[in-house]
Design a protein that fits this description.
By secondary structure, the protein is of the alpha+beta class. The chain has one domain: Ribosomal Protein S7 (Orthogonal Bundle), CATH 1.10.455.10. It contains six helices and six strands. Strands 1-2 form a two-stranded antiparallel ribbon. Strand 1 and strand 2 form a beta hairpin. Helix 1 packs across helix 2, helix 1 crosses helix 4 and helix 4 crosses helix 6. The longest helix is centred in the last third of the chain and has 20 residues. It is globular and about 65 Å long. The N and C termini lie far apart (about 55 Å). The model has no long low-confidence stretch (mean pLDDT about 85).
């Protein structure tokens, strides 16, 4: 039986999640087309069993909130799964050309590098609100990283001449190389952890 490869191009074999805390929450089950068609949408926490590339495609379609507002609701930011999948494939192609490595492996390492470990919550004592540092749950770490990556890529491409696939590839490569200046996800992680340190 022939090996199952992502888009019939990139292999999942020999790719491992090195960070122990994230191993259960980043699924690397081999798929050709990362699309389950929301088959498990009603199952609580099932998203951790969905292939991580599919989760990136899904997040591209709806990147979530920033300051309680949906960001960017036109252009590439649509519910078209085929469009989002094409963007991811083109981005992975660019990543492979620039790093000379398997883009899935680069993406996983970028996720690990930019997953925040702590964040801030507000607690209330006698009518006054205080910030408090808390550890981030592993599943939320993956969710936040995917959100910051896609939002950062949209921010760099929306209304500009940079294609979305190139912006996403740049975001992944910068996170992979720990380039704080070029990666939105990494800079958000550092900002969250710095705020957490100051409110301990």
């Amino acid at each position: 039986m022939s090996e199952i490869k992502l888009f019939n191009r990139w292999s999942f074999s020999a790719i491992k999640v090195e960070e122990p805390g994230l191993q259960r929450y980043i699924s690397l089950d081999p798929v050709v087309v990362p699309k389950t068609g929301a088959r498990y949408v009603g199952n609580r926490f099932h998203k951790s069993s969905v292939n991580i590339v599919e989760r990136l495609v899904n997040k591209l379609m709806v990147t979530g909130h920033r300051s309680k507002k949906h960001i960017i609701c036109s252009g590439h930011h649509t519910g078209k799964g085929a469009t989002a999948m094409k963007i991811v494939e083109e981005a992975f192609d660019i990543v492979e050309q620039k790093t000379k490595q398997n883009p899935i492996s680069v993406f996983i390492k970028a996720l690990e590098n930019s997953a925040p470990r702590e964040e801030i919550i507000a607690i209330e004592y006698g009518g006054a609100r205080y910030p408090k540092a808390v550890e981030v749950a592993p599943q939320r770490r993956v969710d936040l990283t995917l959100r910051y990556m896609t939002q950062g890529a949209f921010h760099k491409s929306f209304g500009k001449k940079i294609p979305m696939s190139k912006a996403l590839a740049g975001e992944i490569i910068n996170a992979f190389e720990n380039n704080l200046q070029g990666s939105t996800a990494l800079s958000k992680k550092n900002e969250l952890e710095r705020q957490s340190d100051s409110s301990r």
